[in-house]
Queue: 2 jobs
Job 1
Amino acid sequence: MTERTAVSRMPIAPDGRLLFGGDYNPEQWPEEVWADDVRLMKEAGVNSVTVGVFSWAKLEPRPGAREFGWLDRLMDLLHAHGVGVVLATPTASPPPWLGRLHPETLPRDENGQTVWWGSRQQFAHSSSAYRRYAAAITEDLAKRYGNHPALRMWHINNEYCTFDYGTESARAFRDWLRAKYDTLDALNEAWGTAFWSQHVETWQDVIPPRRAQYMRNPTQVLDFRRFTSDALMECYVAERDIVRRHSPAHVPVTTNFMPFWTGQDAWAWAEEEDVVSVDAYPDPRDPLGGQYNAMIADMTRSQARGPWMLMEQAAGPVNWRGANHPKPPGLNRLWSLQAVARGADAVCYFQWRQSRQGAEKFHSGMLSHAGEEGRTFAEVRRIGAELTGLGAAAGAQVPADIAVLHDWHSWWAGGQEGRPSSHVAYEEVVRAWHRALWEAHLTADFAHPGHDLSAYKMVVVPQLYLLSDAAVENLVAYVDGGGTLVSGFFTGVADPDDRVRPGGMDARLRQLFGIRTVHEWWPLEPQETVRCGEFGGTLWSEELAAADGAEVVAAYRGGELDGFPAVLRRGRAWYLSTLPEPPALRALLADAAAGAGVRPPLSGLPAGVEAVRRGELLFLLHHGRGEVTVALPDGAAYRDLLTGEEHTGSVPLGRFGVAVLGPVSKVARGSGAA
Ligand code: GAL
């Protein structure tokens, strides 16, 4: 078990006011519009805006020039109107001149093609020129605004996500590998270069996994992903350290994650942040969009180990899906309050005012093209007003008895070419498991397999193909210590070098789950199901022999695996060798959870109603369009913080309805931060 070093997270809402606002890009507008912006921000209850995310060319129109006048005026204006600023370093989008003067700052893709300016994020993370210019503009920005009274937080770069296969990246990759392996012998051994004549004799022959004739060396690919995440993090840390030097200690630093983005080991990154923030864009048309929003919240809260910041969401449609659907009335409010229920202390959007030009002019804003009379803005105003009354949530924790284990390294290794099935998408498997818990009304955290798990009554592993020895021992110790562990298929197969463990699955795990032999993996076709006892399995099946003492909870029926165990259990450790269809997975996990003493916050919840506790508050969130009634525990009286109404016995919820219930006595006294 790896001890997580104590990270002291900084409060996001130190004055007990949840943050509400969004990215504000005033450089896209004549200054006359700014006065209108601040008037409407006030009207909408906006108390925080993120400024400067893509302002590099405006701040430094020529190499070394500094144009701070507009930003001075803007910071002062926002401050005068009580709007705090999350100030961004503009380094996600270098100006065209940087690419012209220093072509080496432009990334190369796997084919060696240059990624040109003309969009954004065209920076090569390991380019020394890029890092030099980024540090210089960051330093001057921090010196100028580090003590500005409007400054609330620093926002470094934006959604770090670029890969680079170019020359400087190759050099940095070699340095990273030298630090990891020390010798080429060790690298050759770890990468298994005896295969296909890949042995490297000099460091010059070590390159990024550029385009090749056929499947590339999987450990090279895995290490390159690890390196890329680390190289991007170095860029973040360098800027973070600069802004910290020039601002008071109470100003936190963040960088916004894309949720479940494959390019970043966000467990590691989160340890370097004062505030953990994320951008959440579930599809309004997805019937399970609410579940996805919950999963993003659970992951971000777990990375933050407490309150987190919703840095971006959309007030209406995005503009990067096939068809970009608006949010039907009430959905923006529902998902915003859901984020608060699951630990957010800030609810923000991309972006404040919808653009009229540029690539994102059809992406919604809080203030859409329809303007202040528009439906979108009316809902934004309502959300702003309601958040003002939810100070009792600020800083409060969300209790969870269950942890879902997730690890980027396992994702990177397990998702490569040449595996038993290319139909298994790791993120979909994780989502299926989270969905099962969500539908069973069980609140879950996420955790890394190396974390201390002892606080959880149940731990689930949707799939961890790669597990280190330490992680395996952590899981065994967790069960030995009284924990309930439920694992999905194709887990514990490889070691951290992506070397298959003897027997196809770690021996300690086989012992834990009661598996004597893994004979074969039998992946399924995308629409295929396999009968297992009473339910259907999808995606995968396994030909397993059970060990003595293992209980066969469900066996395969029919087909090649007829009679073989599908779900095995030894004591508190369960192994699911397939992905059960949603109702079956839900029932199975609810059953295991009940056995572990985990119960939903309320019993008898109607389908589609999510109930989450945060501090002393109970959030009820209705994801459906009809009317439902939620039964409350006998004898308890609650007050809904949103309406002020008192409820005993039950609460009615309409279409996308939300109630935030506090105990009557506390709320009547108007208790502040929990
Ligand atoms: C985010 C990005 C924003 C904006 C938004 C649109 O990924 O950080 O700048 O592009 O997407 O959905």
Job 2
Amino acid sequence: MILDRAEIIGLLTTTDESEIRVLRTRAETTCLKVFGSDVHLRGIIEFSNYCRQDCLYCGLRRSNIGQPRYRMGLSEIVDAAEKAASLGFKTIVLQSGEDLYYSVSDIARLIETIKSRLDVAVTLSLGQRDKAAYRSWAAAGADRYLLRHETSNPVLYAYLHPGHSLDERIDHLHMLREAGFQIGAGNMVGLPGQTVDDIAGDLLLMKQLEVDMAGIGPFVPNPCTPLANSNGGTLDLVLREMAILRVLMPDVMIPATTALDTLDLHGRELALRWGANVMMPNVTPTKYRRMYTLYPGKTSVDEDPKQSADCMRLRVRSCGRSIATGYGHSPRYLRNKQLPGAQTWEAKQ
Ligand code: 5AD
């Protein structure tokens, strides 16, 4: 469905309960029509919390010198991936701060090892690197790359990310797509100074980029950052943005983001009812979890990978939804793959 900016702003701001109900129902129905009741599970391994960036909102920012840091060894990461695969995950997400300790070829070898030993798709979430790195990791077999655009307001983007610009971020999303990845963008809701017009811009940008995946979550102020005293995002606005995205882009993959659980005990279940179709249980070894503090109030920090997986399966089923058994590639990607020569993916084969 096509919605223009004014209609999107109308849906983000309306106080008419029946209009909000129609939006939610429409998002849920669209999701069920495209994906059935299946929810895709992705096991996420947060393998390093070192970061060269200094994003104002994030607890991993390099200026947060009180933050204890850790790095998992490459074989330890492979062990965690094996554990995740044995728990039934068909996608492993490798996430870290922007940590140059791991060379481009270290990561390529890691991907090759995981892909050769395990029957899984691999998603990377490693921040901005260069075109050569993206190409090398795609060639090594990684399938997807998450790089949220964070906010579509260029002034706010530049304020939150010292030394960087929104244009540069968008260039990286293009580079990732050209390298052959399914790409994930996404934004935080409730950033200081952000308006509903900006959120409409986030939605229109994701539509324009034809992203495969979209992570939308609340901004949760972190006391160890310069934004400690800001207000965070609300559950209502995050859910509305997700629902509008589902209506705008019926076959995009939308995770029920982890940060939602800091606002409501059942935040992620709610997201499934507002258009989400992906959950990302944490499969990081327990001893590291407390140190991966993007924001405060992170849940599941005392669980082990099996407990997190079991808990997420229960939560999905509690919503009357089922667990998908396939890799969960994006429908947009699968469609394009079949067009001869339409994608650089073809060249990669
Ligand atoms: N609140 C909510 N989300 C955050 N992220 C980082 N810091 C915060 C915060 N304080 C999100 C960013 C990043 C993702 C990995 O985590 O959107 O892309």
